């Protein structure tokens, strides 16, 4: 039942999210740069593999190289749907139980009748989707015909958090470089930032919204999603997310979803007690009527002529709330209730969202000064 | 760990050194790096970031453009580096390409301040901001000589999160990159840290992160390398050295000495000066065409690239010590570089050279290398005043033996208007010495310009096996034909005169179809006759989407198609013209300015020069013709524009067509345009 429900969800997603396909097409220049990095990383992988073979028993436990050889068997290659246009038919996942449960990203790859999982030692299994939480971009698979076999695994409950600058390792089958009995590729980097992906449409076009680890290495490539991010000494941090473009900077992001966020749904799916949380935005109409407009406070903006017309005040009505707090024409509105206002359009939206009884706090720029004003939101006659 | 805490700088260096040693070992002899070392390094990174954090600000902008040069601009937060306690912040100019209406700076303690852009460093792509604040923490610069390739380099920005810096760790990959301007790093540099700091493990600032490209100096150049492992930072020490000049509020511009090289090969050519620009620092110091540069600022130089390396980071007002060799003599001087040179202006003699047959040395009046014939003399020109006549041959100009029209054009352009030049001509077998006082290029077109004779292809000639062009000519298409280009979805049509004779060089008119009404029939019908008479190959180029018009990325299609025609047919490189009308004018302008090595003429009908013209350069001859009807609303604007082109010393003609509205030029206009094209090889 769970499974069927997820299928429906996935269909809705792929129809509603045409940009998904767009997202997967990186500009060629950056793509080739990324491929270059991948080449280097592949060499790195080889190098590490070589070292592991030559020095299987290092005197120092928990150095990066020991970590890698210990973790690689816990990460698997996943093959499923895709292979058309720029959608890859491969992905990555990691064991979360010794019985063969695998956590991975909820993506089009799982949209197949049969999903194949290949282990680092070359063993192949088919798998079925046990459950999924599309809001967290999470899916859990179970290997078929693996009864009685024990697998090395990560315990999601032992996932930790770490600060900016922490050295990390990313494990994934990026670009499907690893074949057959080869372990997945390893990349290294540091945590560039811990930040929040906002689910605002148009800014981040992502099914997932919430905290992420941003990484300075190129971890998020084609097929890398569902891989793991760990500390240098092997502690589980996050699951590598789908390729995603940051619309604020127009760059591709490298990030992982903290496993902390995923641990309880993973355990619930495994134990069959999972109930999907309701999307808080699900029932909201996509286009809310704007309840208030600047004129309700007694000011008018300059005509909105270009994409990013700055929100300059054009005129103030005498005897209005705006006049009382001392707003002037030519003031530039910069913040509405702590939200940065980058255009007239953004101001209309922010004021439109106000509710009766709220306070409207504005920061305006007058010459070289920032001026704070505050006005009560008037009652609306229905 | 306490020891590490006390001396971060020393431990950081030690770690870097140790890592270098490790990296130098062959793989099989590697010592496993210990957990302790890895942890110490990680601690050092974090400490460096926390040390630099108070000197980094988050920058937000309001309003402005959403794209520049077809490049989509993000409007998210960016980063800046504090350079003075009293509120000066340096950042990457990339962060302000949108020309925002307002700039806001947030300091590390969360205080928001209104900022003003003070000035730009256009050489190193930096912008200086000022906020009203006191007691800010300026970044501590790393001493430049101590920067070593291989040391840790941490790129720090503030764009990703409001509360904490974002970090990328790498090493210094190179110093003195991009013509001496920048440190290169493999830390990930992108819009999330442009304007931020590249930091040493001791927390001092190596440089300010910017996008840069060695090949291109446009403001978005280098952004395509974001996160690739190729990132650049301008040394903070260099920024501080020019800070006082930026604080004056004047943009810093590249310092020019005023010369160009004879060789266009940056790495293979020598340092022989082709021309010293009139009234430039080089000119005033007494340097001359043909001097060989030996040393710049104490660096020995033998290749143009080495010279560029020294000059690439120079700013106006900077000093340059130069020494040269002239014959057996050497000469040195200290120059003060300038940002602007007086516009280059070529002298005009008033002659159209005879178009000799391609490949064959034989000419109407003499043997191979025997000067250049006079095809036509401009009335009232310097040439007319000294009595030059058609069929005279110019043997020498300023003591230089003349061997080709191109060489004569070059020689004449080296003389400034009002200067005198000695001319030796041969008339009826006798040499005469004359002296002409040159003038500037005339704006008016010659009223009656006789065509230059093109002989019909003689059967025997076209089949001569050793004449390559003649041999191929049998396969070459003439008349009107067209093709569609599958890959780019563009299309073109062409008209090659039926009488095409590869023994003569033709003009090439590249006509860009405006969007919508494509005018193909009009253009073909009105030009066919003049094309046959005056030897012009017509090439009509169409945008991939003919309705929406030309996009910036179609420049390559136009360039490639023109070059392929130039290779296939016998085309005079001095007479390749771009022609736009109405809405295709701006794209024609863009291409003419972008490919200055290819296009020698820009012909705009009922359309303005839509981009600011680049400086007139002796190495790239470019002539303009603006033509429109007297009833065209744009008439006055275009006339003014032609005047301002003449003001910056470009040869520019304005032709007004009586009683014509905003339309493609009529028969009178075609005649004027054809005369202009047929006189592009004037000198």
Task: Quickly give the structural class of chain A.
Answer: alpha+beta
Shape of chain A: elongated
Percent strand of chain A:
25-35%
How would a textbook summarize the main sheet of chain B?
8 strands, mixed
The stretches of 5 or more residues of chain B where confidence is low (pLDDT under 50) are 1-8, 21-30, 361-367, 460-473
> What top-tier CATH class of the largest domain in chain B fits best?
Alpha Beta
Helix content of chain B: 10-25%
Strands side by side in the biggest sheet of chain A: 1-2-3-6-5-4
The profile of the biggest β sheet of chain A is:
6 strands, antiparallel, barrel
CATH architecture of the largest domain in chain A: Beta Barrel
Quick structural summary:
The complex is a heterodimer of chains A (382) and B (683). By secondary structure, chain A is an alpha+beta fold.
Task: Give a quick set of tags describing it.
heterodimer; A: 382 residues; Thrombin, subunit H; 2 domains; 6-stranded antiparallel beta barrel; 6-stranded antiparallel barrel; 7 helices; 20 strands; disordered N terminus; B: 683 residues; alpha+beta; 6-stranded antiparallel β-barrel; 17 helices; 22% helix
What report would you give on this structure?
- The complex is a heterodimer of chains A (382) and B (683).
- With 382 residues, chain A is an alpha+beta fold.
- Helices cover 21% and strands 29% of the residues of chain A.
- Chain A has helices at 2-16, 19-23, 28-54, 64-71, 259-271, 321-324, 344-352; strands at residues 75-79, 90-95, 101-105, 115-118, 124-133, 138-143, 167-172, 185-197, 210-215, 228-231, 236-240, 244-246, 251-253, 255-258, 299-301, 313-316, 332-336, 339-340, 359-366, 369-376.
- In chain A, the strands form five sheets. Chain A has a six-stranded antiparallel barrel. A six-stranded antiparallel β-barrel of chain A has the order 7-8-9-14-11-10. A four-stranded antiparallel β-sheet of chain A has the order 18-17-19-20, with helices on one face.
- Chain A is elongated and about 80 Å long.
- Residues 1-36, 41-61 and 199-204 of chain A have low confidence and may be disordered.
- Chain B has four domains: 52-244, Thrombin, subunit H (Beta Barrel), CATH 2.40.10.120; 259-336, PDZ domain (Pdz3 Domain); 351-437, PDZ domain (Pdz3 Domain, Roll), CATH 2.30.42.10; 478-677, Alpha/Beta hydrolase fold, catalytic domain (Rossmann fold), CATH 3.40.50.
- In chain B, 22% of the residues lie in helices and 29% in strands.
- In chain B, α2 crosses α3 (35-52).
- Mean pLDDT of chain B is 89; it is low at 1-8, 21-30, 361-367 and 460-473.
- The chains are: A alpha+beta (382), B alpha+beta (683).
- The interface between A and B is large, with 66 and 58 residues.
